[in-house]
């Protein structure tokens, strides 16, 4: 866990939220009021109203609005965390809470601090308690806190450790429940957390698939939106990598792979790479490759397999999917020959045999 001395020694960009020396001085004094990061988060998420209000009030007093608040907000916007000033005095508590969480997210810019925070079970538990408490209330001002907490969790999930693995089912379960939220920003971030946490635990993948994650991701992919699509297709890729049920549900939910084929035309290489990977995983399902006859799939995969994308995973995933397609349904080879793509297919086979 991060020590006070470690926090006091922080320098930009880890202190990006503190736009001027006065704010930094206030924050250093504030740090001396808490033992460590987990105590701060625990205080803010405490079930004891008096404890929580005291933590919020102290934070708001130390980090109240100043002349440089616009600069501070601009700096915060460069991270995953996004905080907003209160619209009225009635919102000051929730705004202070969101601001505190935003500072925690900014601290994550320092790799050493992020590692220590991510290894702290109490910090994760506090984040989950905040999600539970804010979600139960469901008002706009509390949603800002949920939004900030999800951003903090996304930052922490840049790390991988045993604590995250142990809590993966709980974390993914909270995110699954947030997919029904009416705030699109929260839904997008919940999918973002899923796209990172599911990779940490096969059990979390299993539970998410049982909970209908595949149908939900297909629905969000149909709705569009590049950020949401990027997270959603990554989530599907993780699920189909290890779950036969997920593969079968993609085939069932995405008729003739219309959604995945559309994603293969995306200008975002990350989306294309994950779409090709997901498609390749699903082609092991009986009948899946046959359903793609007379479609544009061969041309799309051939374009990416022989292309010059900056991400080599795009070519590799497309080549693997192309090879699996022709193995599962040899009639696709005829179209491949027409497109003079046999050399690329032969090259792709080495990926198929090693995958």
TrEMBL record:
Gene Ontology biological process terms, A to Z: axonemal dynein complex assembly; sperm axoneme assembly
GO cellular component labels: centrosome; cytoplasm
Protein name as annotated: Uncharacterized protein
Organism: Pavo cristatus (Indian peafowl)
């Amino acid at each position: 866990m991060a020590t006070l001395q470690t926090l006091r020694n922080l320098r930009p960009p880890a202190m990006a939220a503190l736009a001027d020396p006065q704010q930094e001085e206030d924050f250093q004094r504030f740090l001396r009021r808490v033992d460590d990061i987990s105590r701060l988060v625990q205080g803010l998420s405490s079930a004891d109203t008096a404890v929580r209000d005291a933590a919020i009030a102290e934070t708001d007093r130390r980090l109240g609005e100043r002349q440089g608040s616009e600069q501070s907000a601009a700096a915060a916007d460069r991270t995953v965390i996004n905080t907003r000033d209160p619209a009225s005095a009635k919102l000051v508590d929730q705004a202070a809470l969101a601001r505190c969480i935003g500072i925690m997210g900014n601290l994550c810019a320092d790799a050493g601090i992020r590692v220590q925070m991510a290894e702290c079970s109490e910090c994760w538990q506090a984040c989950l308690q905040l999600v539970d408490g804010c979600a139960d209330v469901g008002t706009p001002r509390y949603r800002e806190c949920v939004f900030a907490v999800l951003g903090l969790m996304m930052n922490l999930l840049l790390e991988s450790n045993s604590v995250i693995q142990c809590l993966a089912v709980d974390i993914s379960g909270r995110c699954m429940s947030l997919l029904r939220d009416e705030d699109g920003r929260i839904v997008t971030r919940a999918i973002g957390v899923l796209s990172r946490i599911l990779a940490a635990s096969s059990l979390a993948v299993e539970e998410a698939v049982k909970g209908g994650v595949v149908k939900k991701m297909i629905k969000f992919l149909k709705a569009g939106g590049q950020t949401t699509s990027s997270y959603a297709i990554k989530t599907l890729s993780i699920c189909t990598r290890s779950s036969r049920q997920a593969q079968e549900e993609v085939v069932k939910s995405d008729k003739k792979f219309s959604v995945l084929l559309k994603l293969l035309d995306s200008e975002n290489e990350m989306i294309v790479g994950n779409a090709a990977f997901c498609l390749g995983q699903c082609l092991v399902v009986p009948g899946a490759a046959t359903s793609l006859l007379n479609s544009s799939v061969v041309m799309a995969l051939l374009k990416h397999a022989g292309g010059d994308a900056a991400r080599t995973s795009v070519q590799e995933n497309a080549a693997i999917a192309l090879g699996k397609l022709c193995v599962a349904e040899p009639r696709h080879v005829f179209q491949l020959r027409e497109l003079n793509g046999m050399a690329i297919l032969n090259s792709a086979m080495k990926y198929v045999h090693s995958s």
